[in-house]
Amino acid sequence: MDPDFDFDFTQKPVSTGTTIMAVEFDGGVVIGADSRTSSGAYVTNRVTDKLTRITDKIYCCRSGSAADTQGIADIVAYSLNYHENRTDKEALVLEAASEFRNFCYNYRDSLLAGIIVAGWDEQNGGQVYSVPLGGMMTRDPCTIGGSGSSFIYGYVKEHHKPNMEQEDCVEFVKKAVQHAIYRDGSSGGVVRIGIINKDGFERRLFYNTESGASQISGNQSFILEQVMDAAN
Amino acid sequence: MLNNYNGMAQPLWQNGPAPGEFYNFTGGQTVQKLPRELTTAGPYGTKRSTAAITTGSSVLGIRYDGGVMLAADTLVSYGSLARYQNIDRVFKINKNILLGGSGDFADIQSIMRNIDQKMIEDQCYDDNIEMKPKSLASWMTRVLYNRRSRMNPLYIDVVVGGVEQNGTPYLANVDLRGRAYEDFVVATGFARHLAVPLVRENKPKDKEFTAEEASQLIRKCMEVLYYRDTRNSSTYTVGVCTPNGCGVEGPYQVNENWTFAATIKGY
Questions:
Q1: Which terminal residue of chain B, N or C, has fewer Cβ atoms less than 10 Å from its own Cβ?
Q2: Is the ipTM of this complex over 0.95?
């Protein structure tokens, strides 16, 4: 019984088979993700936003179970918002990453969550932290995650250089996610990019087609005009 | 029931172990009753998993006349994927103790946080007394044994090394079941099979290693482990602890030799 053609997608857990990525540059970070959420073989959301706001200058990229990662992200965002109100200071990226790690580690047997935390703070500038399954945490200048990441380890190793310029980083992340989407069935849709620096968060969207809009306009029939005329 | 030897077996003595049953050593304090969500198998419940996910490979420790040396490569793997290639797995605990961690790396980070808290407590006493390596090893056996007795182990295998108050070097290995072992050479993982016999063969009788001999052996063992362990990388760090100080050096590269491959043809 081929599980992909069961059509039992009502019973399969919703997961973000995904490609996510984050890169540090001098002055900030660039984060990127695809936009597909799948339930087995069915695409439940083709325009998902996997770049989730934690605070104004800290975002996270989510992979694994959609429910688990959304739940944790909500809790961490709430907690940091309270912390910022109490201390009257912007939260540190390390603080957000630690909260994610504590959750993912303490409930590791019940969760399926692979998270990349990235942002900018005054103390340490742009930082990227990786919190994979199991709940360890490590800082990385460039990190990838999700099922699609397997296909781009080679690409990333070849093309990543430390301390690239912001626009070079954006191009690098966009191309890498596109490559992953090309080969990974669980990744697809558009490439969402986010740039975080001292001025805040800027969103960009890249299509995998020419314009992103539908190419065929009007009601184009498949029946050739000649045949129509002959019939008449 | 763990084994179905005799479903009607009586305990061997009052409150004692019954054949085929899981015996509660903690006597009185039963295993915490876990919520149903954590003990029901999927798809909507979860299976209790003790699997290691992100793992570190071998750690090697060698005792010599002036102290101890601990070496570990800088790789944390995700199954067969060499995921994080620049991670320090040898930690300086305080000026007398080094700890090398292998096994599940999230559990290593967790136990390190506990140990760091202990060291900060020590500093707060402000009496210039620091924890001794044997004490830390003893504490680790207690923690790990208790976790395994509750069927919730920390999936780690650690090497504790350092120098005692009177200057004698100390080296021990504690594993996920709380089993401790002290010797002039200890190792975890593959190194236990490949490096320990190598070091033992080179040990001069009735004499400790010199610093040069120990360094040579570490270099040789790291080279062998890189050739023969699929979950090893070629960069490693070395922690050195002597009565004069303690620190982690590196990362160093393995000196690999592949030139003889040209002489092999066919099968």
A1: C
A2: no
